[in-house]
């Protein structure tokens, strides 16, 4: 379905400068469907997990990606961030699928044909089941296995892809590692569990090695990774506590990006920290369908924090959005977030792009209830319907086409 014509909003909270990346993001497992060789597919069908419902066909974007890209381009976006699925490319250890590599290469070429610059993410939470069964990231040789996979993606990324994200939210991957080991004992009333240290070390090593592999494949590719920024705000007397709390959960991963071409900021809400640690949001705070506090200024604050920690590294906002059934709140939230982003850029922070999460309503790691999409997806027919937020945000992208290289 193509979007019907709509007039461009008379006022924008943000005006993308020439060449600015202006897009939306997705993740393979969340939109493709039938990712049967991944660890998440197995988790969805195991007993005793937090998973409320399986991903099943998701948004069927494995087959419908041309329609998804058509819509994004017609709405006005200039860029599309999507991930490629390791479990499809290497379904069994050491066995690489030429057909799947060709599939993802067609996606790259399809994006370019529609005027969308592709940003390709190599790892977005899921791993092949065989990788999980051998112990995951902390198993002997795991980093080298990831590097081998990255090298195998050369047919997809080595030409015509300007930006590659090695690992999405490594800090959250390390947090999930802790939860898998400790279960509910790792969870507190607020904030994040302490990430598993061995997983953190392995991910930082894997990222560095992947960066070397990608640069050897194509020196023109700009390499980075994305970090989930929690916007830790120190309450009075909790400055030291906040710094200590933030380091293993966020800042150590930002520090690891200092040799990258860019670092991705992923921001949705804030976390307030008192002398004894994080405190829950006030009872009367507006909350999203994800249960997070509605807090649009988080993006500007996240960008400023990242700029302080990863000094001199260009920033790309790789995710920012809100899960809500009220699309007018999505517009309001995004307007507020972009206002903070514009103010940070006006203060001299080097931001190169903005990707909204998400292009589509999709599978949010256990449930379809939280709807983040700029485009609605019918769960039965898979029909796509652009939301007003998608038209509003996409219209701004037409400005980014001016002076585009």
TrEMBL record:
InterPro entries: GH (IPR017853), Glyco_hydro_1 (IPR001360). GO terms for molecular function: beta-glucosidase activity. Keywords: Glycosidase, Hydrolase. Residues 1-24 are annotated as: Disordered. GO terms for cellular component: cytosol. It is an enzyme of class 3 (hydrolase). Its EC number is 3.2.1.21. It holds the Pfam family Glyco_hydro_1. One of its GO terms (biological process) is carbohydrate catabolic process. Belongs to the glycosyl hydrolase 1 family. This is Beta-glucosidase. It comes from Streptomyces violarus.
